[in-house]
Amino acid sequence: MQSTTEKLKIDEPVDKILGKLDGWLDALVSMLPNMAVAIILMIVFVLLAKLASNLFTKIFTKASDNQALKNLFSTIIYYMVVGIGLFIILGILKLDKAVTSLLAGVGVVGLALGFAFQDIAANFVSGIILAFRRPFHIGDIVEVNDIMGKVSRTNLRVTVIETFQGQEVYMPNKDVLQTAIYNYTILGKRRIDLGVGVSYADDLDKVESLVTDTVSSTEGVIDQDKLIFDYEEFGGSSINFNIRFWIEYPDQPGYFAVKTRVIKAIKKAFDENDITIPFPIRTLDFGIKGGQTLSEMNLMPTNERKDEDGKKEESESKSEE
């Protein structure tokens, strides 16, 4: 009798499980047509998303060359079409409650991820702002956070700068947006400030006229009317002046090439006109109190000085006798 009771207790849960499995199997069989339609729709919407993204890219390329914006909107369009298809498929599968739960879950997960990945979100938003503001273009020479180089590519997370030393620097968009950006390409020209010194014996009017004419006639120098010459100071061994002039700025090697040509031209003009760029001059003072020259110094060691003084005294006493 007891064994029969125990057998009944075991059979009840087994029957419930089997009943559930039968119900799920029937539901699965009844949903097979809908699942087939859902799979087909998913494939169709993925293809539509790619088609819409490519179509937008072609249209946007004709209207603008902003690579970052093109990537941003093409990605948004792709996932928007896929998302619409996903919700339609869930409706076909009669998972409306799942859609509601999914939306609620996405909101909670999005909030949690927002706190967990604040830097990533900040870089993403900064990338969007940079894409709209466009403070630089691909190929521009910029300086950001003391890093100077050519912008090789950008995306919604980082800006890649190729330095003149041959390294690639991946700079977060947040740092790029929050710091000063020096764009050396946007105006197409750059000013060179060059410091030179001449001897105190040279004619300063002649030096100014010679330097301005030499720099103005050097290849690569532009805007000659904006050339600035100014004497800066009375230096330790020279009178120092600055010459400021503008050049076309295609790239950094061109900048160094024009600067080199100007330095050579100034040196050649000085040599031809007997103008001196003096070496540093130092005056040595050997006296304890100052003002005593080397010839006036007694450099004999102390012992030898004493012997010399003794010999002088002996010679003086003999002469007196």
Question: Over the alpha carbons, how many angstroms does the gyration radius reach?
Answer: 42 Å
Which structural class do you get from the secondary structure elements? alpha+beta
Overall number of strands = 9
Spatial shape:
elongated
Largest sheet: 5 strands, antiparallel
Task: Order the strands across the largest sheet as they lie in space.
Answer: 4-3-2-1-5
Strand percent estimate:
15-25%
The unreliable regions are: none
What's the number of helices? 8
How much helical structure, as a percent, in the residues?
A: 55-70%
What is the end-to-end distance? 161 Å
Instruction: Give the mean pLDDT.
Output: 78
Q: Helices and strands, in N-to-C order?
A: HHHHEEEEHEEHEEEHH
Give a brief outline of the structure.
It is built from eight helices and nine strands. α1 packs antiparallel against α2, α2 packs across α4 and α6 crosses α7.
Please tell me about this protein's structure.
Helix 1 (2-63) packs antiparallel against helix 2, helix 2 crosses helix 4 and helix 6 (204-216) crosses helix 7. The strands form two sheets. The chain has a five-stranded antiparallel beta sheet. It has 321 residues and is of the alpha+beta class. The longest helix is centred in the N-terminal third of the chain and has 62 residues, at 2-63. It has eight helices and nine strands. The protein is elongated and about 120 Å long. 57% of the residues lie in helices and 17% in strands. The model has no long low-confidence stretch (mean pLDDT 78). The chain has helices at 2-63, 67-92, 96-116, 118-133, 173-178, 204-216, 252-272, 302-320, and strands at 141-144, 147-154, 158-163, 168-172, 181-183, 189-198, 221-222, 228-234, 239-248.
